[in-house]
Design a protein that fits this description.
This protein is an alpha+beta fold. About 30% of the residues lie in helices and about 35% in strands. It contains 12 helices and 16 strands. The strands form 2 sheets. The protein has a 12-stranded mixed β-sheet with strand order 7-8-9-10-11-1-2-3-4-5-6-12, covered by helices on one side. Helix 1 (about 5-15) runs parallel beside helix 4 and helix 10 packs antiparallel against helix 11. The longest helix is centred in the C-terminal third of the chain and has 23 residues, at about 305-325. The chain is globular, with a radius of gyration of 31 Å.
Amino acid sequence: MSEIDEREIKRRFEVISQFEPSSKVTARDLERARERLTEQTSGQQPKELKIWRIIMKSRITKLAAAAVIIVAVILGLTFTGGPDMASVAWAEVIEKVEQISALTYDMTTEISYPGNKTLTYQSENYVAGDYGTRSSISMNGEVFVVKYLLPRKKLAYHIRPKYKTYIRIDLSDEQAARGKDPDDPRTWLKTILSGDYTELGRDNINGVAVEGIKCSRLEMTGEDSVMRLWVGVETNLPVRIEVEMFSMEGGQMRPHKYVMENFQWDVELDESVFEPNIPDDYKLREVQKNAQQVEQKPSRLLTDTEKDEQPMVREVVRKFFQACSDEDWNEFSTLWPGLKPNKMQKSLLGGLEIIHIGEAFKTDDSATWYVPYEIKWKLGEVRKRILRVRYDKATQKYIPRGGL
């Protein structure tokens, strides 16, 4: 041989055959390569096997073949010579996105109504750990509200350009502590990967090779929900997140579908992106007072008749929450006629713990009673609110009417 003799070739093959994989080569990758080798060699035709036997009769070709196989396993190649297809490392997805400080994404929301009617709107979203979140929500191409959640400043804004109005919301310590989580797609990501899931295999989204999984998290989204996650096989970053569940809309539980996509991970976002910059001619609207704010108003003195009614109203509220705790849904519907709990409501309310039921009070001359309550969800979240109760003349009963 002109430049390298046979003995030197043999020596080099011997060296290759002793090659040890580096620490970067994981057990998962080695096992995947072995499985691919097993699958493909077991499916070869007799003619290929015959060629293999001929090759293996020579000592030098034995060494060469051994070297090729070893290098193939180390580099993630299949025995037939083609590159092994990359695969998503699901356990590493959360770890990778948690290291990202800022991102942008688009979301489409679909709400289904009776008569095959669907309300659809889109949003452009910005998330930065240091600043908060911003969402521009549009319908039919027109932005109808821009929302800012600024936990560090303990503020939130909803700006409506069409009407030149805005509202300012002071966040509680609890709301501020949750930070950007309510609007951060990584919150959904953690939910999806928090338990068992079913693999959906490989697909292609906008030219990107992805692998998907799906699951249902009863404790978070109810029995009728389904969540799907699609992750890029090359980047190991989410490409699309889909959530189908029932949510409250207009006082009714309706099917919702959320699709988060067009992610831009680890982008640079200046703090100015999260500055509302409200024009001077926009008018500040007051936030509609809810049941929790009613407690801040002084309760009025009760009449003698109302003093007799007061313990009965409180007892109705106690029985209602006890029915939830016992998962007695017939009693639930008896105490609150017209409200038939669906699977999601049952999963949220069932098994709750009653911490405290306060004294019923009134703040004006209306027929509405207000009853403070404190309960603990089965998942551990404590909820402090006020239930509204009214006397129904038709049934001659005190019936809850809101505040749940």
